Amino acid sequence: MPSASTAATGPAAADPASSAASAASAASGAGGTRLRIASVNVNGVRAAFRKGMGDWLAERDVDILALQEVRASTEDLEGLLGPEWSILHDAATAKGRAGVALASRSTAAIHRVELGAAEFDSAGRWLEADYEVNGTLITVVSTYVHSGEVGTPKQVEKYKFLDAMLARLPELAAHSDRVVVLGDLNVGHRKFDIKNWRGNVKRAGFLPEERAYFDRIVGAEDAPDYNAGAGLGWVDVGRRWAGEVDGPFTWWSWRGQAFDNDTGWRIDYQLATPALAASVTGYAVDRAAAYDQRWSDHTPVVVDYFI
Questions:
Q1: Which helix (H) or strand (E) holds 272?
Q2: Rounded CA separation 276/20 (Å)
Q3: Which residues form the Endonuclease/exonuclease/phosphatase domain (predicted)?
Q4: Alpha-carbon torsion (20, 26, 30, 33), positive or negative
Q5: How far apart are the C-alpha atoms of 169 and 274, rounded to whole Å?
Q6: Is the separation of the CB atoms in 54 and 66 below 8 Å?
Q7: Can you list the pairs that 204-210 forms with residues at least 24 positions away whose Cβ atoms lie under 8 Å?
Q8: CA–CA distance from 200 to each of 41, 204, 206, 271 (Å)?
Q9: Helix-strand-coil percent breakdown of the chain, rounded to 5?
Q10: Alpha helix segments (H runs only) across 115-186
């Protein structure tokens, strides 16, 4: 892509998923299909396209694109992406806020937008769709978790959403053994996920209570300090692929030298069921080459699966 470089990492050498990914890659000519799924918080899709998102998308050969913080109408999305994309969009209740979408080269078989109890407003933050890929059912979820703010109703809403998400994941896994939940989850799970983690332990996005949800989803870091129950066995594709290294970060503040100094957070994820995670053949964070080439404060997370 002209305006960005792709930061990619290889699978961790000691990781058992590495052999599965290598085997899938080696078999890529044996009748399977590469499924490239990309996710990005666009921070307003119209502004993102004005700044160059279209160039990135044209070069990335994406099969399914998950968007968060769309902040636009379905008609806007259709006009920006073009007729070659099949678009699902769930807008937020409040106009101009949040909004999630899934765009795909093939039409989804079915989609769902409800999350949690009827009185809980998840509009614009959770969108599920089922796709048939090479005869296999793949469920993809685009989600945008609340950013939260300590000591305010915003943090209460964030916990409500995470509770609903935690309850939904086992249901999704029962529905299909190949599911990926992806998007801006607004939590750094481990110290590797934030450049200056020590200074953020009392800040929304890295609170022990927030990280506990990820302990449940993918397993505790070293010991069950924050673990409140049995793990769900999902896989953090980015961490499994990158290994025990800082980042690769996916969000940087617009302010100061955060981007230039790589003082970022890894809060954009692809969380997959074990069967789908075992088929990963590539993972990349498409970090812009320079500050003035960014079209969002987040960067795309791109994963190749072999189906």
A1: strand 268-272
A2: 11
A3: 38-298
A4: positive
A5: 13
A6: no
A7: 204/147, 204/148, 204/149, 204/150, 204/154, 204/155, 204/158, 205/147, 205/148, 205/265, 205/267, 207/150, 209/159, 210/148, 210/158, 210/162
A8: 22, 8, 6, 23
A9: 30, 25, 45
A10: 153-175
Q: How far is CA 66 from the centre of its chain?
A: 8
How far apart are the C-alpha atoms of 247 and 253, rounded to whole Å?
15
Structure tokens at 75: 């008609």
Q: Cβ(251)–Cβ(144) under 8 Å?
A: no
pLDDT in tens, 45-90: 999 999 999 999 999 999 999 999 999 999 999 999 999 999 999 9
Range of the domain at 205: 7-306
CATH at 107: 3.60.10.10
- The answer as to whether 247 is a domain residue is yes
What is the per-residue pLDDT across 109-143, written as a single tens digit (0 to 9) for each? 999 998 977 666 778 999 999 999 999 999 999 99
> What is the domain count for the chain?
1
Q: Are 245 and 157 in contact (CB under 8 A)?
A: no
Residue 261 located in a structural domain: yes
